[in-house]
Amino acid sequence: MFDLRRKKDAVHALLLLLMFCIPVLLSWNSKTQLAAIQEAGVLKLVTRNSPNTYFLDKGEPAGFEYELGKAFADYLDVKLELIVPIDFSSIFSTMRHRDGHVAAAMLTVTPSREEEFQFSPAYLETSAVLIYRITQGEKKPTTLAEAANPDKQLVVIADSSHASLLAKLKESQPELVWQETQDFSSIELMEMVHNQEIDYTVVDGVAFDAQHSFFPGVEVALELGDPQPLAWMITPYHDNSLAMALDRFFARPETLELIEQLKTKYFERQNPLNFYDTAAFREHMQTRFPSLEQYFLMGEQETDIDWHLLAAIAYQESHWNPDAVSPTGVRGIMMLTNAAAAEVGVTDRTDPQQSIIGGAHYLTRVMDKIPERIQGQDRIWFALAGYNVGFGHLEDARKLTSKAGKNPDKWDDVKQYLPLLTQEKYYKQVRYGYARGYEPVQYVRNIRRYLKLLNWEIQLMQTRQQDEAADFDPDHPSWEQATVKENILPAL
Hints:
By secondary structure, the protein is of the alpha/beta class. The chain has helices at residues 2-30, 33-40, 64-76, 90-96, 111-114, 144-147, 161-170, 186-194, 205-211, 241-251, 253-266, 278-287, 289-303, 307-318, 338-343, 352-367, 376-389, 391-403, 411-414, 424-427, 438-469, 477-488, and strands spanning 42-46, 55-57, 60-62, 79-83, 102-103, 118-119, 124-133, 154-157, 179-181, 200-204, 218-230, 233-234.
């Protein structure tokens, strides 16, 4: 009897415990993953420090995935927190451990990944492309077997969709051979192809379109398979609330419009720094320059910056087009941002006089950021490079230059180390991380070229004026000088 009573008491105690626990359990179950994110006020986005995902641009966060992730965080009314794993494979381990809510890193949706993770609606499609360097005496590969063989070095990123694709193709083509690496990013592999350190690599078509203009001679040999969707990745959760929020976000007209804008901004933009068309420059000297020359002279009078340099910068920025507008919203002859225009009192960025004189004043402020010990032309080139890429990245490159035993106060030394900021083994050593280090080098190079060409064209016009005064007498010294200039300019 005593044992029976004790059993009844235990049952009663258990029932009472359940009565207290059920509301708690119900309350816990009622908090969805989305509600927990919104209550915490933070969305954790797992991404990569790379040109197509996230990087610092003039000290500000940028990148396709960053901007799209920021829009989603704003949609949820929470802050965005970035988690940047040390390598590509760590994206998946981070998500497995539930240390991030969403992985946004230009991830291809593959069957093997779908077995473990969920994906948002696709926002882009891309094909895997085999790239090679055009080299005299070497034929373009026409089949994958020509590239993936023991005599050639084909390298892809380990655990990437490209490695999985090659493994799949090997089932029907057992002769295929390649190497996998975790030490390099896709842009580094493109650079290695350009430098002929390896023969081939496989990258996403969108990544190639965004970066190939920095690697002249690197081209697509083959498309490997059909286009595949790119999407955000999440770890499955019992209530599916985050997945449904992603579905709603990607279905919004505002999101679709943003994606198109970001595609133009980050993937479809051609590198303007490769443009060096003497014929177009000459035409613009005749049609655009005359009405602007007085404003460049006024800019020099107000700032002591050589007006020829101001004109060369303006040509690089806008080709002297007062109505020029970039995908990022900068506009006018000097392509000023809203913030830069406000800083120097420019109220109408499309007004040539305001833009040129305001741009000259802004350049003096930019030059003030360069250490005083750096003088002469080096000071100008550093200022232009810092304006283009951001002074934090410029300082990182100067530190790499110093570490290599070169002079961090000489542009000719530093310009060799700025491109290294695209390589993970270097940008992981510095404060501001990844940067499109090729851009400031080419930006400065082209301004210097335009400056030379401007001076030559001005001299040529002066010579022609002298010729006219001499009635084009072949015996007049200026006639021979003009002929020489006409002959050498096209070759430059």
